[in-house]
Design a protein that fits this description.
The chain has helices spanning about 5-30, 50-80, 85-95, 100-130, 135-155, 155-175, 175-215, 225-230. The protein is mostly helical.
């Protein structure tokens, strides 16, 4: 009878455990682990470190856009006579810019609730507001300009995120069993951004349309309004 060495038994056990561990990771990534497409033939040549650096850069810009949103909404609320802690929240978020890619995405996602609440208050106040003072109009123009910066900065990341998703799919599919868990960990933040950012841009565009409409009724000129209309459509 052929004797099976202890090393062989251990190797088989480890591989078996790693195969079993892939199911949760597969579920977390959703369609990212789907069938390889014809355009992914060069996926195996994608550099993991370069991918991680690109993902971190995009995540930093998404967080920067969120911080800009909060700062702009704080100024808009000030112009409308509303109280806001958005500035303090934005300052807290700045610290996450020095963290990992996952930290940046978590912080950006955490700011969503604060941002949505601020938008609701701004929209309700604009609907009920009377003529603003000259000082308030200047503040509203400043806040509106910053809001445009935030929307455009986040919109600019969509194409980069889509490319990273395709690259991540190739990396996951071409990774060996021993490499797959590590690759999945790198790709997961990109998957999160691919669902978070487009919806955020859509919501931001909707709010911006209301801001520009209100500004027009108040004879307030928002810096960059023409550029925003061109890049975001008719709003």
């Amino acid at each position: 009878m052929t004797r099976i060495s202890m090393k062989s038994i251990m190797a088989v056990s480890i591989i078996g455990m790693m195969i079993a561990s892939q199911s949760p990771a597969h579920a977390q990534l959703g369609g990212l682990l789907g069938n390889k497409t014809s355009g992914d033939s060069a996926g195996a040549t994608i550099d993991k470190d370069a991918f991680g650096k690109s993902a971190d850069d995009v995540a930093g810009k998404v967080l920067a856009a969120r911080i800009t949103f909060l700062a702009s909404k704080a100024k808009l609320m000030e112009a409308l006579g509303l109280k806001s802690d958005a500035v303090a929240k934005a300052s807290e978020a700045l610290r996450a810019a020095e963290g990992s890619t996952s930290d940046k995405i978590k912080e950006a996602d955490k700011q969503s609730a604060v941002s949505k609440d601020a938008s609701k208050q701004i929209e309700e106040s604009m609907a009920a507001s009377k003529e603003l003072s000259a000082e308030s109009k200047a503040k509203f123009a400043e806040g509106g300009g910053k809001f445009i910066e935030g929307v455009l900065l986040e919109k600019e990341q969509i194409e980069a995120i889509q490319k990273l998703v395709a690259q991540g799919q190739s990396m996951v599919q071409s990774a060996s069993i021993l490499q797959k868990a590590g690759v999945v960990k790198i790709v997961k933040p990109v998957t999160t951004m691919s669902t978070m950012v487009p919806g955020d841009v859509k919501e931001g565009s909707s709010t911006l349309a209301k801001i520009l409409k209100f500004a027009k009724s108040q004879n307030v000129e928002i810096p960059g309004a023409d550029k925003a209309t061109d890049k975001l459509g008719g709003l």
